[in-house]
Amino acid sequence: MSTVPTVRDALTQQDPDSPGRWQDFQQRVSQEVKGVKWTAAMPDLASKIGELFDVPIPGLLTASWKKADVLQQRLKESEKSPEEVIYVELADHTIQSEHHPYIEVRLQNAPVKKIQFTLKLSFRLKGFVLKLQAGQIREIQTGACELAGSIQFQGVTVIEKKPSPIKLPGSIPVDEKAEAPAAASKARDVSDTIS
Fold first, then answer.
1. What pLDDT score does 38 carry?
2. CA 51 remoteness from chain centre
3. What range defines the domain where residue 24 resides?
């Protein structure tokens, strides 16, 4: 697993069958584009699919938290005193989100095939603390995190993770300017709820 955990890391973590399922998944998608007449050598589609799910988990969490009114208010307060550091203890909560990442196959700049996936995630979080400064989330101090998730392709679940703990570093620095665009470009939110 990388230093900053990604969705792909978490969905395949501690599952002895995950490498085989991931390969089956990639082969299935490769079959989907078999009929495309390539003008050059076919790009490594399997690696591009993997990259779709290399979305940093902290970016997804911070994007969800920033939608909460209470946190928006605390961020505005921290903006007024940029030197002051504010710690916000989060209540135990669940974040559920659905994303639709896709690869668009283009030939001579014209789209010929769109390969779309449905990614469903549910994070159950306990004991998390956010460090705020100058209107930004600067650090996530993690507690216990349990993740359930699935990847669907053409309505069929190809990867599924039952609710289980995932390992996160105890402290994760957040560079919101770098993380937000990366997370948004790889996984588009359709729904996102915090409870």
1. 58
2. 11
3. 7-194
Give the range with max mean pLDDT: 83-92, 155-164, 183-192: 83-92
- Report if residue 2 sits inside a domain: no
Question: Residues 166-193: pLDDT tens digits?
Answer: 989 999 999 866 554 444 444 443 344 4
* 24 residue type, one letter: D
Closest by alpha carbon to 94, among 155, 162, 163, 140? 163
Tell me which residue of 10, 102, 126 sits closest to 60, measured CA to CA. 10
Residue 115 forms part of a structural domain: yes
Counted domains in the chain: 1
H and E: helices and strands count for the chain:
6, 10
Nearest-angstrom CA–CA distance, 53 and 2: 13
Segment 41-71, tens digit of pLDDT:
555 666 778 888 999 999 999 999 999 999 9
User: Could you tell me if residue 96 is inside a domain?
Assistant: yes
Answer whether residue 175 is part of any domain: yes
| E strand map for the chain | 85-89, 93-99, 102-107, 110-126, 129-133, 136-141, 144-153, 156-165, 171-173, 189-194
- pTM, 2 dp: 0.79
